[in-house]
Amino acid sequence: MDMTVLTYAIYLVISIALTVWVARTLSRNGQIFLQDVLRGREELAAAVNHLLVVGFYLVNLGFVALYLKVGDTVDDARGSVEALSVKLGTVSLVLGGLHLLNVYVLSRIRQRGLDEATDAPQRARKLSGRAYGPPIAPQGTTHPAPGV
Hints:
Layout: H1 3-37, H2 42-66, H3 77-127
C-alpha cells in the first residue's frame, strides 16, 4: 500500500473517531445546559441539541473531507507522521473553535433569558400602573355594575 494512501486512511479514521467522540460528549453534556437555557422545556432542548449535533457533524466531516489531500507525496513513516500531525492538529483546532462558538452563542441566549426574567417583575409593575391600567372614571361618576 502506498504511504500517501495509508496516511489518508489513518487521517480519516482518527478524524472521524475524534469528531464522533466530541459530538457525543457535547450532546450529552449540552443537553443539561440547553434545558437551563430553554427554561426546562425538555422536548425543545432535545430538538435543539439534535439540530446542533447534526450541524456539528456536517461542518466537521465536511472540513475533514476537504482537508484530506496531502500537498506532497508521503514517502516514509516520518512524512506520514508529519502530515498527520498537521492535519489532525488543524481538525482539533477547528473542533475546538466550533465548540467555543456554540458555547458563546448559547451563553448569550441564556444571559438574555436571565435578563428577561429579571426585568419581568419590573415590566409587570409598569403595566399595572395608572398609565397602562384600566380606564379610571372621573371623580363623581360611577359605572353601572356589570350585567345591569
